[in-house]
Every structure is written in C-alpha cells, then in structure tokens.
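Researcher: Hi, I'm a grad student and pretty new to this. My advisor asked me to get structures for two proteins we've been looking at. I'm not sure of the right format, so I'll just paste the first sequence and hope you can take it from there.
Model: That works fine. Here's the first sequence with its structure tokens right after it:
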Amino acid sequence: MRKLLKFLHTLGSCGLIGGLLIYMIVLGLVPQDTPADFAGARRIIGLLGTYVLLPSMGACLATGLMSISVHRPFQELRWVWVKAALGIGMFEGTLGLQSKASHAVGLSEALIEGKTTTAAVAAELSSEWYLLAAIMTLALANIVLGVWRPILRPVLRRG
C-alpha cells in the first residue's frame, strides 16, 4: 500500500509541475494579440486546469494525507506536517488559479463580443503570474522536503 501511495503521489507531482509549466508556456509564448488568439489560449489554459492541474493536485493531496495516515512513523516527523501544510496551501492556490483561468475564458468571450476592453481584461488578470509563481514555489518546496527530509528539531532556548 505504501509503495502504491508513493507512486501515485509522485505521478500527481509530475502532473502538477508539468501542468504549471505548460500553463506558463501557453501564457508566455502563445500569441494573444487578437481577441480570437487570446480566447484560444484561454481555452487551452482552462482545459489544462480542468484535466491536468486540479486532478494532479487532488491526487497529490489525497495520497500525501493517506500516506501520513497509513504509515505511522510519518505521523511523528515534523517535515511531513510542514509538507502537508504547504500542500494544503498549494491546493487553495490551485483552486484560485483554476477560478482565474475559468474567469479568463469568460472574459475572452466578452472581448470577442466587444463587451469589454483589453485594458479591463489585463487588469483582471494582472496577478496571474504571481499566483503561478507562488504555487510553483510551494510545489518545489514540497519536492525538496520530500527528497531531503530534514529533521526540523525544535529550537532550544538557552536560559
């Protein structure tokens, strides 16, 4: 059971990091000069979030928490709990990112129909790169914790 959970957790991590990288590539490199190009890029990002990011994040969180519950020694290690807390933060960030991506699809349709302006769309999506960077940083920190497995002893007070 432990090996299966570890495999699924690793697979979910690969999907999450890969999904975030593809999101960044589409956001940075796909032409978005015209409303039609913008809408196409946003549809790709929306599908990526729905079919790669959210399932991968869900798999990572679920298998990580299950690993803690079935493997008793994990329950006593501080790095495991730090990793769990970071994972919950990543999950919240990923939900926020998916919400922003879904909203952007709607904005792109409104842009094509002439109901909004590019300046309004840019203002709505201005924090997208920051959110991507924050989630990627948390994901990489989780990977480092899972590989490095530091002891994280409590700080001793001198007195």
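Researcher: Oh nice, that was easy. Here's the second one.
Model: And its structure:
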Amino acid sequence: MAQFFQIHPDNPQLRLIRNAVDIIRQGGVIIYPTDSSYALGCHIGDKTAMERIRAIRRLDEKHDLTLVCRDLSEIAIYAKVENQHYRMLKTLTPGPYTFIHKATKQVPRRLQHPKKKTIGIRVPDNNIVRELLAELDEPLMSTTLILPGEDLPLIDPYEMRDLLGHQVDLVIDGGFCGMEDSTVVDMVSDPPVVLRAGKGDTSLFET
C-alpha cells in the first residue's frame, strides 16, 4: 500500500520532502500536487517507473510526457528553446503551462515523442513541487493524474490512495490544488499553437 504524506502547501516539511525524494530515487511512482491539479511523477531515468505511469494512465507512446523543471535555466538543458521564445517562457513560468519543445540529447529517447522528438516542459507555481525539485536536483518525469475514461483529474488525495494505493508508492496530500489541466502550447510551431486550453491564460497566443 502506498505511503501517505500530508505536506503543508505553504511551508512544506523538509523531512517529508526528503522522504518523498528518497522514494523517487528508489524507483517509486508518486502522486503530488501542482498549480493546476494532482499529477503522477517518477525519476527521469527510471524506465520501469515510467512504464508504470503509462499503465496507470493507459498512455500510448505518442502521448507527450512532461519534465517538471525548477526554472528557465533547467528548461534549457532539456529543451531546444528558440531565442524569440525565451521572453514568453520567462513571463509565463512558473505557471500552469506545459510547453512542447524539441528535446535535447539530455532527454532519454524513451521520454521523447517517437516521431517528433519533442518533450513537454513544465514549471509549476507550487511550493511542494519547488521543494521536491530542489531536493531532487533534477526534473521529475510527470503527467496529469486523469484516470482512463475520465475527463477531469482526481482532486481528493484520500480517494487517490483508495483507487491507486497498490499502483503507486506515495500519495502526497498537499490540499486542494484545482482540477484543471495545464494549458499545453506547441512551441515548435511558428507561431506557437495552443494544443489544449487549460488553467493558463491563452490570450498571449491568439493571432
């Protein structure tokens, strides 16, 4: 059965953050809060954990996975960001956006879109995520926690534990964080194209 941590959304307890990161490093799959909804996450280098997440969500290989990063400088390690897009990303991060970019060689091939060689990039505005990433010192492989056949993410950590307690290793209860998807923007297209309108404002991308 998954462990269950109640972490304060404003002042995350360092002991619990470190315990969560230990679980991630040991190949665990976690459920954690973001600035738009709860998400599934695992270590960027763990193939087995990634496949467990794909199985929970029933995702095919064409689904864009996301790397949750600390900031713009970390984004640049994993994504090829065009010069004209830096200002836009600086304005919109941290925030409820997922940006699709061409992946760099730092991104394991199994995480990239098989044909487009792209990767989703995300910098959530959430204190728990910030502390997790600071302690982990690298991105978190992630996807929104939406169960197969459902249109909206799960919002109750206790329900998440009941439904997925035998499929994940940790559920982080960080309080209510919303039930909207992030806004997904294809930054490879010129101009950028909104692929999914979510919590993030799309007016900057309207032509």
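Researcher: Is there anything I should tell my advisor about the second?
Model: You could mention this: The helical segments are 14-25, 47-57, 72-78, 83-92, 127-136, 157-164.
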